[in-house]
Amino acid sequence: MLLVPASHRLAGKESITLDDFADEPLVRYAEAAYDAFWRIGPRPDGRPAPDGPLVETHADKLEAVAGGRALALAPAGGGNSAVRRDLTAIPVAGIEPCTVVIATRAGERGHLVTAFRESARAASHRSRF
């Protein structure tokens, strides 16, 4: 999903492609591999994403997007715009979904671990298109 301000030119689109926002700045992250993953680096055409502000927290990312300083890619079903009326999330076609794995100790049966597994399983089914 691409997070954009609610007033952005792409807001309201049913779906977009990487080309639709290729020249727009994306937030940056301090860790290189994390940054490359969330900025789709390198891009299929070899160009880097234009640099937006460096963000350290999820709240920083949301504020940068809401303030119009950058856009941000985010997981589908992540709830990034659900509680903020100044943001909208748009599905991005052509970006391969990633696999999420939950690992626990063998035989772990604690209440919190079980609840987390169930919550993650339910969220993964809700986020499919």
Main pleated sheet: 3 strands, antiparallel
CATH superfamily of the largest domain: Periplasmic binding protein-like II
Run of helices and strands: EEEHEHEEEH
How many independent structural domains? 2
Topology:
Elements: E1 2-5, E2 16-17, E3 26-28, H1 32-38, E4 51-54, H2 58-66, E5 72-73, E6 87-90, E7 92-93, H3 111-126
Parallel strand pairs: 2-7, 3-4
Antiparallel strand pairs: 1-5, 1-6
Description:
- With 129 residues, the protein is an alpha/beta fold.
- The protein has two domains: 2-93, 3-Layer(aba) Sandwich (D-Maltodextrin-Binding Protein, domain 2), CATH 3.40.190.10; 99-129.
- It is 25% helix and 16% strand.
- The protein is built from three helices and seven strands.
- It has helices at residues 32-38, 58-66, 111-126; strands at 2-5, 16-17, 26-28, 51-54, 72-73, 87-90, 92-93.
- The strands form three sheets. Strands 5-1-6 form a three-stranded antiparallel β-sheet. A two-stranded parallel ribbon has the order 2-7.
- The longest helix has 16 residues, at 111-126.
- It is globular and about 50 Å long.
- The N and C termini lie close together (11 Å).
- The model has no long low-confidence stretch (mean pLDDT 88).
Summarize the structure.
This protein is an alpha/beta fold and 129 residues long. It is built from three helices and seven strands.
Brief descriptors of the model:
two-stranded parallel ribbon, 129 residues, 3 helices, alpha/beta
